[in-house]
Specification:
Blueprint: H1 10-34, H2 41-47, H3 55-84
Helix pairs in contact: 1-3
């Protein structure tokens, strides 16, 4: 394996993390609908500004979940590439 093949691609990682967080968000909402007395709404109020149990709030939370993952991947990949690739020479 050469050095280039070991590098993380920021956009690919960001899209993957964004999709992962979106699926997790939707799963948590589904759980909150199945078991409504568990207090799952509190994290949404803390991490998703503007979240409410309305169609607009749920869509906003979904968009924010994806954006948070996208930004995390775009920021993390170059940092991991910088520290993770051994330099010879």
């Amino acid at each position: 394996m050469n050095e280039q093949s070991c590098r993380l691609r920021p956009i690919q990682l960001g899209l993957s993390l964004g999709t992962f967080l979106l699926v997790g968000y939707l799963a948590c909402l589904a759980l909150a609908l199945i078991v409504p007395d568990r207090g799952l709404h509190q994290p949404w109020l803390q991490f998703y500004p503007g979240f409410a149990w309305t169609p607009q709030g749920i869509v906003l939370g979904a968009v924010l979940s994806f954006v948070y993952g996208l930004v995390t991947g775009i920021v993390f990949a170059p940092i991991a590439n910088f520290f993770g690739i051994s330099r010879s020479g």
